[in-house]
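Quick one, T. Sequence first:
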Amino acid sequence: MNRKSLSIRNAAYGFLSQGIIIIGQFTLQTIFIKNLSISYLGANGLFTNLISFLSFAELGIGSAITFSLYKPLALSDYQQVNSVMTLFKRVHQTIGIIIILFGSILSFFVNFFVKKGQLDVS
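Structure tokens:
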């Protein structure tokens, strides 16, 4: 297959996977509303947003490192691939530590994001 057809196929798979994710999220929220209370849906949304906030620590570094692997892999420069993957490991370990640190700190302030009595999940 040529590069153009592979790109089209990749885009189609990406579009399909995004569609499945959207349908899955809609189905999950519908189940939450019908079987649980609206407060559970609010709690799910709150914690999903907090996790999304913490994921900003990655800042697209994974995509940049993946891009930097194209040339060494095409040239079979495995020493360069090894060095990029070592960098990838160090960066993601640092990001993981930052997310754990900020997540732990943020967990003490969850009650400031919720009105009193609004999130009654007991």
